Amino acid sequence: MYVAYNTSANCYVVAVAGTNGNKDGDHNWYDTDCLDDNVTVTTGFPLGINPANGDKPDTKNVGYVSQGAAWGTTNLLNMQDPKTQKTIQSFLKDNESSQGTLIFAGHSLGGSLSPTLALWLYPNAFAASRWGALYVLPTAAPSTGDRGFVNVFSAIFPPTAIRGIANYGFWNQVIWNQYDVVPHGWTNLMNIQPFNVQNDVVWDYVQGKSCQTLYGPLSGLSADIVYDAINAKYQLLRAQIPT
């Protein structure tokens, strides 16, 4: 995660990285079971996210997110600047401005974590109003949470057209390609075209392995059962725009 600031635009961008191709256990949450391997278990949002170095902005759950998204967001909230020792929460609080713009952005894994992080930090209209403008720009992102999560996210971060970008230019929506496998997780993986179960990334992981679900440990799952269990929980962010 990195925060960039444009002085002339008075704009901060919180950029969340996608999957690290190097199998670095400290930074690659995909390879450490943080996101991809923990979507069959959900946790309450936002109370299921408990950073050691931060204060919860809200007091009640509004929905559920995947356990992996919760762990990944917790990792982001626990990160500290090596020089100032500030977390993202304390840094943004110190720089909030009614004249400033704040954008959360991320691709793939980062596209899932950036809206989760944004809604955790700014869970209501009052909190969001501390900035002149507040947006989220996720790309190629898998689904993060259930309908409750999506409903609240859409209320705080309504779809907003980006000036000068026709057709697919919207804030607060996932910008995605319909042939990309990642945005189809975890709600409609079976709709990927062309479909080939032998080459499916989720099937490759699940095949012959066990999964821990809300209903207890399951083993020897077929692809159809895995998809059915996951699809029942997750909800896409509204009005996604394919490119």
From TrEMBL:
Pfam families: Lipase_3. It comes from the Bacteria. InterPro entries: AB_hydrolase_fold (IPR029058), Fungal_lipase-type (IPR002921). One of its GO terms (biological process) is lipid metabolic process. Residues 75-184 form the Fungal lipase-type domain. This is Fungal lipase-type domain-containing protein. It comes from Myxococcus xanthus.
